[in-house]
Amino acid sequence: MSTGNSNNLMHLLHLHHSSFLKSQVAHAIGMEMYIRSKQINSKADLASFCKSYIGDYLLYNDAIMIKEIFVALKKDDWDKIIYLSSIYNARKTVLEIKKSSRQAGNRLAERMQSIKKSPLFEKWEENINEKNYLNHYLIVYSIYAYENDFDLYLTIQSYLYFALTNLVEHAIRVIPLAPKEGETVIFDLLEELNETANNATHLTLNDMVNSAIGLEISAMQHKYLLSKLFL
Amino acid sequence: MSKLKGRFQKVNLLDYSGTEQLRLEKTDQSHRVFTNYQVTGLNQVKEEETAELDFIVKKASNITVSMAEPIQVNQKHKQELSLHIEEEALLLWNNHEIMLQPNSEFSRRTKVSLEGDAEFVWAEITHLNQKEYFHYASLMEIWVEEECLAYDPLAFSTSNELIHHHGLIEDFQYTASIWYIADKLPFDEWDIQQRLSQAKHHRAGMTDLDGKGILIRWLSKDLQLLQQEVRDVLSFFDEKITEIRKWRV
């Protein structure tokens, strides 16, 4: 457990720094369609979107996956890790989001490997062999967090926090909203975010669900926009 | 458990077996390339039982499977589907509808496995009853050889307090999905796009599945429009598939 170690905490938080290409930005493309069609047009609308994004979409997909990868890494079960990565890859149906998540994963892996060699990354690369399409941001992030002894709860919590703040930062520029309103949306959701992170530690792959059809359709439609605000 | 097993080879049905009320019948409907079958008895499966369907489509066979009637979920309905498609074969799981009545639960697990250049088409419309309790869960797993191409654990329930929020199913009453898995799709994405409307209270989107297929998804409040669009897309697929496969049978 490393939650009390602030140096280690800084290390984890820096993984979300904007110098890394973040996959969470990808879902801004789904949100863009809602903003353009004026369905998200106020602070309340934004809060509603973020609430379902954190409390449903991320909880029942990404958060579960981080937890399951931690469990498999603890058992050194690489077959399971490859299986989980295949499921995560197959679960991302929208191609643009899938590509962006892979691109972010490759960038994070390359950058971290060039800074400090990681035996677990090397093992991962050896195991995926030529299946580079499995190199999603979330998988690389989870492996790195586990190797550096970050706490599971904190790993999920920081992932959710940066996903939320990224979405809100994008949204307030486009709706537009005052920065204060964006901050209120974030502060109001923090308690729920902590609960979501806590819930995720008790869920398994069998609990993975897809209820976010609206978000999925919006992300699909984004490809056909003539001009795009979020890429 | 109610079971239905079938092995399809060209125009013949081999190793067929059905228990309880479940039956598989060849229909009179003639088609240039497809042999058409119909599943009956799904609505008669007892609520405590699971309807287990296990189909194998043999090499180079072109098969359409339709449901005799929409699935009416009055209380509980559970299905386990295993669909295996050998190389050069095509299975079209024809447009079917699931109607969730108040206080009903539907759960289904579908595992589709394709060999080599096998193709698979699936179309489904779900009627969501959002006024009273319902629970819908459907896991679709599509494997092409050893690769998992799609893992789609759809789940909608009134017990999910976020269900009406932006991004989920909001206040739509109908949802639909079409999957078309093929090594080489016989059309361009714009052919599909032009068949999807963006009418009021109706949303549709399409995505490519890593170059190995497409998924089309709808949310709608207009059942007629939704049914029409699903039919249009399927009829377009039929035309393209026939063009290619008519010389192969």
Automatic annotation (TrEMBL), chain A:
<dbReference type="Pfam" id="PF01730">
    <property type="entry name" value="UreF"/>
</dbReference>
<comment type="function">
    <text>Required for maturation of urease via the functional incorporation of the urease nickel metallocenter.</text>
</comment>
<keyword id="KW-0996">Nickel insertion</keyword>
<keyword id="KW-0963">Cytoplasm</keyword>
<comment type="similarity">
    <text>Belongs to the UreF family.</text>
</comment>
<protein>
    <recommendedName>
        <fullName>Urease accessory protein UreF</fullName>
    </recommendedName>
</protein>
<keyword id="KW-0143">Chaperone</keyword>
<dbReference type="InterPro" id="IPR002639">
    <property type="entry name" value="UreF"/>
</dbReference>
<dbReference type="InterPro" id="IPR038277">
    <property type="entry name" value="UreF_sf"/>
</dbReference>
<comment type="subunit">
    <text>UreD, UreF and UreG form a complex that acts as a GTP-hydrolysis-dependent molecular chaperone, activating the urease apoprotein by helping to assemble the nickel containing metallocenter of UreC. The UreE protein probably delivers the nickel.</text>
</comment>
<dbReference type="GO" id="GO:0005737">
    <property type="term" value="C:cytoplasm"/>
</dbReference>
<dbReference type="GO" id="GO:0016151">
    <property type="term" value="F:nickel cation binding"/>
</dbReference>
Automatic annotation (TrEMBL), chain B:
<dbReference type="Pfam" id="PF01774">
    <property type="entry name" value="UreD"/>
</dbReference>
<dbReference type="InterPro" id="IPR002669">
    <property type="entry name" value="UreD"/>
</dbReference>
<dbReference type="GO" id="GO:0016151">
    <property type="term" value="F:nickel cation binding"/>
</dbReference>
<keyword id="KW-0143">Chaperone</keyword>
<protein>
    <submittedName>
        <fullName>Urease accessory protein</fullName>
    </submittedName>
</protein>
